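Async update (no meeting this week)

Hi team, since we skipped the sync, here's where things stand on the single-chain job. The sequence we agreed to prioritize is pasted below, unchanged from the tracker. I ran it this morning and attached the output directly underneath so nobody has to dig for it. Comments welcome in thread, and please keep replies under the output.
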Amino acid sequence: MNDYEIALSLQTETVAHRRYLHENAEVGLEMPKAVRYVMDELEKAGLRPQKCGHGITAQVGQGGKTLLLRADMDALPMPELSGEAFACPTGTEAHACGHDFHAAMLLTAAKILKRQEESLPGTIRFMFQPAEETFQGSRDMIANGILEGVDAALAFHVSPGKMPVGLVMYNSTGTMMFSVDGFRITIRGRGGHGAYPHTAIDPINIGVHIHLALQELIAREADPTHACVLTVGQFTAGSAPNIIPDEALMQGTLRTNDRDSRKKLVGRIEEAAQAVAKVYGGSAELEWISQVPPLICDPVLTESVVRYMKELPIPSLSFYPGVCASASEDFAVVVEKVSSAFLYLSAGFPDEGGEYPAHNPKVRFNEAVCPIGVASLAHCAKRWLEENR
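Output:
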């Protein structure tokens, strides 16, 4: 049997993995249920999993080049309203981005590749990663050696919505996903009575002017040929209408599709915040709470993966190049360090089942994508090793 036929024969198993992880959703770096489950299943398949930071790794094959296959495992801190029988019951976690699929598909692909280990002309390493949503997981595992000896990396991401299963979306010519630099600005003034503003230094007033200055960076300093999006999503201060507070807090994100634009604007945000605060007699302290580069895949590797996928007898598989999303993905930290490819697999429904997008509490994903993901992971890994002995 070919890898797609094998993946179809293991569909019940892959779906069971997905539903367990879905119902037992966990967020952040600490994911004890997922870690235990993944390690147990890898051991059942004959592998020797190990902790790597807060994630899990294992590998098959020996010698030769090493290809990394990555899957994230974490959920989002939100309630689930999907109506699925296996919905997470906690009311505070939900797999609304499809990471349960990624881990489930990689578990089954690892089982297939273990069975075929003796014929592998190299090494395949598996990366089961926590905390993608908080942009901590990749750095955590990289700091603990996940990329040591790795020559290339591959990851797939499922995508819900009103579309049929079988679409493959990728970008081999430019940026596939934007960078994200999350910032927190603490503005310090001097509190006072609302009736006597001249005796105080108003941090709210300073924050308003910082917000305007940051938007002017996009309007007047960002290269208009590149996309740059700056959003302040939180602005909090004060406890009463007649009291000028001592402090105000602003939090936001900068997203770009260009490395040079990102480098320039990251520096200018801090300069602008501090300069504006000084003008009005206060101070501003900036802290970067997430720093993820734009996801720009290796063009040769990406086109090779597309070619490998076309070798599989998957019905109605359609390829859409040049896809770019303004969302961000911390696999970009891996991409920045080793030759990598990242592709989207549609997991939607063409009818009302695909009404809701990712990160919506009512989103649903189509489990028919599972054998496509499993077969693509296994087949592409083997083919890359064959062509890169």
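Quick observations from my side:
The chain has two domains: 3-175+294-387, 180-292.
Residues 180-292 form a domain with the Alpha-Beta Plaits fold (CATH 3.30.70.360).
Reply here if anything looks off.
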